[in-house]
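Give me structure tokens for this 236-residue protein.
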Amino acid sequence: MAEHLRDLWDFADPAGSEQRFRDVAATAPEPERAHALTQVARALGLQERYDEGHAVLDALSPGDAESRVRLALERGRLLRSADEDVASRTFFEQASHEAQRAGLDELAVDALHMVALVVEPADRLDAHYRALAWAKAADDPAARDWDASILNNIGMAYADAGDHGGALAAFEDALEARLRIGDPARTRVARWMVAWSLRQLGVVDLAREMQLELKAELDAIGETDPHVDEELDLLG
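Here you go.
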């Protein structure tokens, strides 16, 4: 069911995703119905319809561990999207603890990665690395594949602290993870992050070369990326 839910997501189209999850929930037995409705709430949050999202979650009475984890996780995401980080942390930590107890590795890593986004800035890198350790130790391939996103977050944390050497190392590791996973669009983003870090470090020739390669690939598939264009302008 978890894989099926992932397949229904199009984060660029949360309204369309919402409708697909509602369609699943309309015919699915429990607990699959509850799982789908938690994703309805998430899709509503991405549309900034926070009250509606909370109402969907309020109507659930989860009887199984996965449903409880998903409810807490999406409650936390709704709160974080509404800039209520302190309140969201409680739900992310609840989700991570229950997921770990139930052996739900992918959800545990997801929850830990969300915890790391809302802790105090001074604690953020340690929290990211805890999430990464869980991902690397997991038996579930879907849980292990969280390493790419977490490494990107680690890179951003280093960059925010002005440590662009540390950021580059993390972004390079994230790129390796993306190449392993095999999603071309997300791999291009990971390549962009490496090139961005190189520019920050003054390695402009290699940064320009990488951005030009991205530009050529995007042209070949009829797509554009303003971030690539912006970097090329900066690189001259």
